[in-house]
TrEMBL record:
It catalyses: heme b + (2E,6E)-farnesyl diphosphate + H2O = Fe(II)-heme o + diphosphate. The lineage of its organism: Bacteria, Pseudomonadati, Pseudomonadota, Alphaproteobacteria, Sphingomonadales. NCBIfam families: cyoE_ctaB, PRK04375.1-2. This is Protoheme IX farnesyltransferase. It is found in: Cell membrane.
Length: 301
């Protein structure tokens, strides 16, 4: 007597739901949102501020969950994502969908009711942009997916500022463009040393479609305007010397690493050292840059 068994997802644990939210990405999103709030020229009530940051975190978690729900097939084909809850069979796709939608709706409603409508509207726009524009529309269609989709990760600074002020000003817009222009060199540096993963999954990342040489040139090309925008708040006298000097030094190092990436030979695969160095430094760059901005603004108040 033969018996056929149909593989069923194992019961998901709380760790699997946490993994859906992409905690590492959420950390950066929450940090930039917090910096946008703290850099604002007003003092927000601690409870309202905590609620706003919670909403930003929940919104980021919703984006991560919906991204994993939609890209479960891609994740199963890439080594670095194959152990995520859905491709590993630890969770049903429907559960991930409901979890992501629930987080997103709750975060926007709570932001609108407890903070203000402008911050809720920007939060809603950021979630929709990441899920619909980046994940569904761009990710599988164009090597410019990271360029355009980078706007989704740049929204938190706007949300934090709007939560505190109820309006937008020039400084948070510049913070938005700092993250927007930072995103391509950050992700393309990563894509250069995990190119085989993207190629196997059929994702048209820049190295897969245009080749490593073109990608390295693009990394350098985006690092230059990013550095200019990073220093611009100081040049416009929106910040003081603490931020200005920090931005100048960090940006020079970033551009220097981007030059090394740009000069790397296409056939040189010796651990992809320049790309790895730039990718690791790019994370430190954004944290220190925004931290210096907050410190500088607090001293000016």
């Amino acid at each position: 007597m033969s018996s056929l068994t149909v593989a069923q997802p194992l019961p998901a644990e709380w760790r699997d739901f946490l993994a859906l939210t992409k905690p590492r990405v959420m950390t950066l999103v929450v940090f930039t949102g917090l910096c946008g709030m703290l850099a604002a020229p007003v003092h927000i009530h601690p409870v309202i501020g905590f609620t706003a940051i919670l909403c930003i975190a929940l919104g980021a978690g919703a984006c991560g969950a919906l991204n994993m729900w939609y890209e479960a097939d891609l994740d199963a084909q890439m080594k670095r994502t194959a152990r995520r809850p859905l491709p590993a069979g630890r969770m049903d796709r429907q559960a991930a969908l409901h979890f992501g939608v629930g987080l997103g709706v709750f975060s926007v409603l709570l932001m609108g009711l407890a903070v203000n409508l402008l911050s809720a509207a920007i939060l809603a726009a950021s979630i929709l942009f990441y899920v619909v524009i980046y994940t569904v529309w761009l990710k599988r269609r164009t090597p410019q997916n990271i360029v355009i989709g980078g706007a989704a990760g740049a929204f938190p600074a706007l949300i934090g500022w709007a939560a505190a002020c109820g309006r937008l000003d020039l400084l948070p817009v510049l913070m938005f463009f700092m993250v927007f222009l930072w995103t391509p060199p950050h992700f393309w540096a990563l894509a250069l040393f995990v190119e085989t993963d993207y190629a196997a999954a059929g994702v048209p990342m820049m190295p897969v479609v245009a080749g490593a040489r073109t990608t390295r040139i693009q990394v350098f090309a985006y690092a230059l305007p990013m550095a200019v925008v990073a220093v611009l708040p100081w040049g416009l006298k929106l910040t003081g010397a603490i931020y200005g000097l920090t931005a100048l030094i960090l940006s020079l190092v970033f551009v220097g690493l981007a030059v090394q990436v740009g000069l790397s030979k296409q056939g040189d695969q010796a651990l992809m050292k320049p790309e790895r160095r730039l990718f690791r430094f790019s994370i430190l760059y954004l944290f220190v840059l925004f931290g210096a901005l907050v410190a500088d603004r607090m001293l000016l108040v």
